[in-house]
Write a structure and sequence with these properties.
alpha/beta, Rossmann fold, 7 strands, globular
Length: 166
């Protein structure tokens, strides 16, 4: 779908859009949080491109998913890491692929357990537009339409590449 160079170009454009958003909204004091695992990889890439040198928050939303009872526990659970206070902060929430909106809902539920943020800006690398919940990114790298049997996945963390599979 996107080879490594196309994925890097997409990340460059996403970083540019995020920088413009931050300037437009005058969000000087913000924290960046990635949803594990692909959202963390995208957040790291954005921070590098924007020369942001601050702690990165990492959310593991496994216990907040609404399909937890059906799918069970993910094999690679690790604790959420928020090395900063989220209360009254502007948060930049980063995910790799936005499909139904359920992962983002789970992430927001978890974030509110840590405090009430001033705002949450959603940034996604890929938006599949298959929403089941009324959740939309403020910033996205690409809108992609897939056939019903197709899926997209971010391969990483090194040499990030968006891959298509059936």
């Amino acid at each position: 779908m996107f080879d490594q160079q196309a994925t890097q170009d997409l990340l460059d454009e996403l970083a540019k859009s995020l920088d413009q958003w931050l300037t437009k909204k005058s969000l000087a004091g913000f924290e960046i949080i990635g949803i594990r695992s692909g959202g963390v990889w995208v957040a790291q890439a954005l921070m590098e491109r924007l020369n942001i040198n601050q702690a990165l928050g990492e959310l593991d939303i496994s216990f907040y998913r609404d399909d937890f009872n059906r799918k069970g526990l993910n094999d690679s659970i690790s604790p959420t890491s928020l090395p900063f206070n989220t209360e009254s902060k502007h948060l930049i929430l980063v995910d790799d692929v936005l499909m139904s909106g359920r992962s983002v809902r789970a992430a927001m539920n978890e974030l509110f357990d840590f405090g009430r943020p001033a705002s949450i800006t959603l940034v996604t690398l890929i938006d599949l537009g298959r929403r089941e919940l009324p959740i939309a990114p403020q910033i996205t790298g690409a809108m992609v339409t897939l056939a019903d049997n197709e899926r997209v996945k971010l391969i990483g963390p090194d040499n990030l590449e968006v891959s298509l599979y059936s």
